[in-house]
Predict the 3D structure of the following.
Amino acid sequence: MTNKTFAIIKPDAVNNRYTGKIYDRILQTGFTILSAKLLKMTLAQAEGFYAVHRERPFYGELTTFMSSGACMVLALEKENAVAAWRETIGATNPEEAAEGTIRKDFATSLGENAVHGSDSDENAEKEIAFFFTESELISNK
Ligand code: IDP
Ligand code: MG
């Protein structure tokens, strides 16, 4: 799974009509979209997806936000996909994100920061499986 990662265009970015602009960044940066869907998470789904953060003070705010509106979930492919996507999205806090990154250009705040990216190959695999079945991942090879 070293070449796959999982991304979310979060509800702030979908509401702000940045989906197309972020898709363009994804494609222009050389990622292949293996699968994508627009969905609205239930609170229980958001709590499950972010379970690793359940002890953090922002867990309630995060899961409420992530279940507040539509988001786009994507399975992406590229060489070193996890690191490449983290570099493309920038730092968690948009105020600290580098010029030209998605969070620098489209995030609203630290909590509402436009996009998600997996932090390891292991988590990428788990996160893709949380939202997609194997048969939904399109291989062009
Ligand atoms: P990441 O998304 O860059 O991997 P994580 O530390 O995994 O950052 O945090 C998950 C998400 O939780 C962040 O993307 C952001 O939406 C939210 N978050 C992180 N830290 C804070 C905080 O201090 N206050 C509010 N929300 C936060
Ligand atoms: Mg993270």
User: Anything to note?
Assistant: The chain is about 40% helix and 15% strand. The chain has a mean pLDDT of 97. The domain at 2-136 is CATH 3.30.70.141 (Alpha-Beta Plaits). Residues 14 and 71 are 6 Å apart (CA to CA).
